[in-house]
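Take a specimen:
=====
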Amino acid sequence: MSFFDVVFYLFAAITVMAGMGVVLARNPVHAALFLVLAFCSCAGIWMLLEAEFLAITLILVYVGAVMVLFLFVVMMLDLNLVKLREGFWRWFPFGALIAGLMVFEMVWVLGSRQTADVTTAVVHAADYSNTKELGRLLYTQYVYPFEIAAVILLVAMVAAIALTLRRRQGVKTQNISEQVKAKKADRLRIVKMKSEPKQS
């Protein structure tokens, strides 16, 4: 067994254990930290497969941004863990069925002849750039699907902003323009009062 295989199985074992920790952790913060560990080990596997751009993107986007935001939200909310655990055994058979189907699909794909025929990895030159190759494919062969995905993400972002900024009756909102246009005469009133004589 080569050093490459040892490192691969090490990262794979860490990923599987971290995934089980995400599912079985009772505390949502611990589950989020297990998910960070799973992302980091997946990035290590992608580095072994010479997908450096995807590995760095996984670390920067998911671990550096999404998971930090998720941790802040989980820690700021007062989550009732008892309510989160309700209905676990009721949905357990359905979850076990889905997990069994996923395992069957992975075994079926990895055990097929098309996957088994690929026994040798492609060896690239020392100056090979994974990022350059990915950019060339995105902007030449897959330019239309890439642009469609960008438009869909833009529409989703605009829709989320529109839903956030909609006005609802009976809810106090902050109007920045009205606050900026405020003048002293609108907020302050000077009242002149006669002084009272000092009582002896």
About this structure: Residues 52-76 form the longest helix (25 residues). The chain has a mean pLDDT of 83. The CA atoms of residues 94 and 166 lie 38 Å apart.
